[in-house]
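Supplementary Note 2. Why include the ligand at all?

Several targets in our set were suspected to adopt different conformations when bound, so apo predictions alone were not considered sufficient. For every target with a known small-molecule partner we therefore ran a joint prediction. The input for adenosine-5'-triphosphate is given below.
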Amino acid sequence: MPKYEKSLIEAIVDVGECGIILLDESRNIILWNSWMHGASGISANEAVNRPLDAVFPSITGRRVFSAIDDAIRRGASSKLSHALNKWVFSLYCSAGATQVPRECMEHQVVIKPIAAEGGARHCLIQVSDITAAIKREKMLREIAQRAQASAKEAEKLSRTKSEFISVVSHELRTPLTSINGSLSLVAGGVAGDISEQGRALVEIAMRNTERLLRLINDILDVAKIESGKMNYYFEPLKLAELLEASAVVNRAYADQFGVTIEICNRVPDVRVRGDRERLMQVMANLLSNAAKFSPRDGRVRVKAERNGDAVRISVSDHGHGIPDEFREQIFGKFAQADSTDTRQRGGTGLGLNIVKAIVQNHKGEIGFDSIVGKGTTFYFDLPELLPGLLPEPSAASRSEPQERADCDAALCE
Amino acid sequence: MLNKILYVEDEPDIQTVARMALEVVGGFNVEVCSSGSEALEKVVDYAPDLILMDVMMPHMDGPATLVELRKLEALDGVPVIFMTAKVQPDEVKEYKAIGAVDVIPKPFDPMSLPETVKRIWAEQCEKTVC
Ligand SMILES: Nc1ncnc2c1ncn2[C@@H]1O[C@H](COP(=O)(O)OP(=O)(O)OP(=O)(O)O)[C@@H](O)[C@H]1O
Ligand SMILES: [Mg+2]
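The joint prediction is reproduced in token form.
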């Protein structure tokens, strides 16, 4: 390499994006680039020929001081870890040069021995600005912390919500338990005979507490669904048994409207995986809707049949049907076709909203066909539970349901 | 024969309703306690045939009381029934795991409560030959 003028070396050194300090063997500054001038506010003229610790008195006794010593005496290089060696020199970010106080520069220091004339060893100090990287790191840490905090917050909120649901359900049911109980005892003559008018009034009160209780249950179910707190207990279920039980449970309600419930089960052997209580709830709402919107002495038919890989359960009535313009809203909350008729038949319009959520949780879909003036069929599909997947009953009991598919053929049309 | 029932319930109104149902409709002899600790105090002297107990009670809830009751030798074979609104399947499983024989959901119908209690008692007798 040819020998260059000192000015050329200085020029090259000044181009770089980092601070360069060269020390002689007695730690006197022999080179101080313009980057150092900018960052420290000390010019090369002021710095050169002075010992480094005179320019930066704070370095005495610190790790950087011994690292310089190591370079000069033993020829060792070192890179000072930023975490342990913050603000080694008093340097400031140039961006805020006019700002008071100026922002301290986060910097990284590398120290290297340089072979000088006559076997002496000098020391090169390289300083780089890592303020931006440190800031980014800090920001990322803060973002992560904030995300963690908001996840915790969300968890707390959801816990509060489910606590709320459980407290409300207990607090609302407790007074209703004694209201309903007292009325039932009075109606049962436990408190003595009551007049006919008295009985009529008590019955009104009882009917309405029951209605209130149903409403509370529905509202709590909607709250549970919306906060994802609805619990399901899946188990293998005999579909035939489930449908029969639902017909039995809802018979009294259907009787009020003079409506009969008929079952037509084309798949008497089928089992599904489901939550018994919840599926009963689905059937109760579909059956109660079908019954209350049926004409007097109407028939409501529950049908089960194969639909591809799934089983389709449907509930049909010969009621007034569902107008097209109501299709969109029917599964919404508090959705009721706007008619005085609906008001008279009671209900709050939560039933189908809950039903849809339950069916979807069973990996099923719910839909309906309706012709205004003729009738409505609501249906939902459930995946069949294949026999290999569960303990089968004995062969004897398996053959017998064939005969139980005895719904009269006319009904199954 | 089922005659003496120890009934544990903290809510006074529900107490009145259920007591009337059990005494007047069912014709049972009923001792009412308002807390788990009161039940533990009275139970040995009263020597009930059956215990009917609420789940959510302050201080000592139904399940905690049941665990203590089960430690009393004098009560061996005395069936305990919970009466509660908390009847999710896993809750019921929990009650049975600690030794409750059955659960009556709230709200209950007081007119049919005695029959229900009798039925559970009869089922229990069959199992243990009492
Ligand atoms: N089978 C049917 N025939 C005619 N209209 C129906 C039928 N089923 C539902 N609907 C209409 O859809 C509305 C919503 O039904 P949904 O079961 O959600 O509520 P509801 O029965 O009115 O009240 P709830 O079920 O909450 O007691 C009903 O009010 C009615 O207008
Ligand atoms: Mg409905």
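The beta strands of chain B are 4-8, 29-33, 50-54, 80-84, 102-105. Helices of chain B lie at 12-25, 36-46, 62-69, 89-97, 113-128. Comparable summaries for the other entries are listed in the accompanying table.
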